[in-house]
Write the structure tokens for this entry.
Amino acid sequence: MDDYKITWRAARVNAGYTLKEVSEITKKNMDLIRRYEKDSTDIPWALTNELLKLYKVPAEIIFFGRESDLIGNIKVFAIIS
């Protein structure tokens, strides 16, 4: 089975934060946070660490790359009874 991965946006939402709140806490522009949620290919290591601590998630479950690449590869499973 493939490793379980979530997007930065999913991590933020699961942690209960809005973009505005993350922007204020990290002292980064909201547009910058939004951009890294869409494509985290080049997210700086310092911001990565800060967000991992804020969201309380391990790096192993975060998908690094374009959000659309992960979402485009989601497999749909049907339960047949």
The chain has five helices and no strands. The first helix runs from residue 8 to 15. Confidence is low (pLDDT under 50) at residues 75-79.
